[in-house]
Amino acid sequence: MSARQELLTEVTAFIYREARLQDEHQYDEWEALWTDDGVYWVPANGDAIDPEKEMSIIYDNRSRIALRIRQLHTGKRHAQAPRSRVRRVVSNIEIGEAYSKRIQVFSNALVFESTLRADTLWSVRNEYWLRRDGDELRMERKNVFLTNNEQALFTLAFLI
Amino acid sequence: MSITLEKTRPDVSQLVETNRVHGSVYTDEALFQAELEAIWYKGWVYVGHESEVPANNDFVMKSIGPQPVIMTRDNKGQIHLLQNRCSHRGNQVCLKDKGNARAFTCPYHSWTFSNTGDLIGFAFPDGYRDNPDADKKSLGLGSLPRVESYQGFVFGSFAAEGITLKEHLGGAAETLDRLVQTSPEGQVEITAGFLKHRARTNWKFILENECDGYHPAFVHSSIFSVADSAIGTYYGDRSTALTRDFGGGHSEVDLRPEFRKADVPMRWFGTTAERLPDYVASMQAAYGADKAREIMIDGTPHVMIFPNLFIAEIQIFVIQPLSVNETVQHVTALQFKGAPDLNRRMRQQTMGSVGPAGLLLADDTEMYERNQRGAEQLTPPWLFLGRGSQRERLDEDGYTVGHSTDEVPSRGIWRHYLTVMEAGA
Asked: What residues of chain A lie within 8 A of the CB of B195, using their CB?
């Protein structure tokens, strides 16, 4: 297997694991995937806005990611009590730029969510920057581009 | 055989009482249509802010309930509210959310309208020459006959006649005066783009929740318990904050008694003056040390301007009903002219709090949707809104006030609703 194929295999395993932890609300295990300086971004109104100047659906630095997880753990995050039932299919995994420590990865996902309100289908393009930390890969950046992020959206309180 | 469709309209006086409302006010489709006519297509409704169309010929897509409205600034600087419907075949003349354009050309047959709404050109004009009905003056875009602004907030009315905006705002106008003072230049700007949060609920559950000070201790306990936030105490049993009914359906939660008790500048924003040195210096230069301190202690208002503009200290929400059980909340951070360091924090806090994934608003929205599902059930038919009615009093201005957790705002909304709906019947 070429080095490039080996990297793709490793990255794919990481992405699948992240997807499973999100689907199963394994909050602490998911949070542990982040680097200490991780940034989690879900833009609104297109994919090209400047999150420093315009509103995003999520634009969490590492401490706000932790806050989001702590809130979910209270059991009183009503938008996730009861928790959504979620399953996602991840596909089209491609490696973009790759350096010795940092790897850019793209994927598509279709996420099916079932809540007290109704069932909702979410479609996303993910862009990751993964960083090698010893034997592990971690997320230093995850950008989630919702296909319908220009529309009015229902509550999105599970981990997308 | 002929069938006559009787347009039956519910008798609102049978559904709204001083301390309770009938559940059907949230679920009745005929009532929703009557509300569109009496409230949304007749009275003053907030549309947008002047700063969203800063330059001549700027435009931005807005709405009044289910109706799209293009807010334009013409080449002389005047603001117009236009409908996005070509007078020829009804096609949409504008497909962009915002931009700069002197004219809108319909893509279907290329009729062209100026940004004042006037029809300025037909394609292949020979087909209309000498046709007495093809009068350009009578074929403009639909435009709202009344447009007025207050402190930069632009309101429109589909009715040609009625009370002035100032009369509509009444006592609530003072809250907008208070708001703009937070800027060293006395101006609010809406420049950070809107999040659009959809909910399967009737718009009035949202309207009533905005100044409901009873729910935060329960709906938001999750975030209060994990974030270092003092907000919870303002909505506790022992809070000195007030709810106030301004009349006209407008209401506020007045947190100033709590902030004045603490007497710490910028406490209202959960921070300190030391963390915003540039802002504090600009405020002192603009207003003088004493007045600046007063403004920075009192903070910004928490006010619901009927029927759709909610100013929540650091952000504005615009309520857009789409149908009897579907509503969109548009929300963005308030930005204060001349206060870049404050504005950056406003955006960060707003993004964390509101919108579909917001640490606060996702939980409010969950409640709105559950309220709606409850209202769709049959019994008990009435919903009780009497909290604190026995301890209401009049303040020095003659407005009804109550404890921060009392349902003074809801009762004020329903009293006004009854007046407007009966007048529209």
From this structure: 44, 55, 57
Beta strands in chain A (DSSP E): 34-43, 56-60, 85-98, 102-114, 119-133, 136-146
What residues of B are in contact with residue A67 (Cβ under 8 Å)?
A: 226-227, 352, 359
Distance CA A144, CA A105 (A): 12
DSSP state of A81: S
* CB proximity list for B274: less than 8 A, separation 6 or greater: none
Nearest to B152 by CA among B164, B165, B161, B143: B165
Instruction: Kindly determine whether residue A44 and residue B352, on different chains, have CB atoms separated by under 8 Å.
Output: no
Is B362 in contact with A59 (Cβ distance < 8 A)? no
Interchain proximity A79–B359, CB inside 8 Å: no
ipTM over 0.85 threshold: yes
Put simply, the chain A residues between 14 and 73 with a CB less than 8 A from any chain B CB are 42, 44-45, 49, 52-60, 64, 67-68, 70-71
The tens place of each residue's pLDDT in chain B, 425 residues long, gives 455 555 567 899 999 999 999 999 999 999 999 999 999 999 999 999 999 999 999 999 999 999 999 999 999 999 999 999 999 999 999 999 999 999 999 999 999 999 999 999 999 999 999 999 999 999 999 999 999 999 999 999 999 999 999 999 999 999 999 999 999 999 999 999 999 999 999 999 999 999 999 999 999 999 999 997 888 889 999 999 999 999 999 999 999 999 999 999 999 999 999 999 999 999 999 999 999 999 999 999 999 999 999 999 999 999 999 999 999 999 999 999 999 999 999 999 999 999 999 999 999 999 999 999 999 999 999 999 999 999 999 999 999 999 999 999 999 999 999 999 999 76
pTM: 0.97
The residues in B 313-352 lying below 8 A from A, measured between CB atoms, are: 328, 331-333, 344, 347-348, 350-352
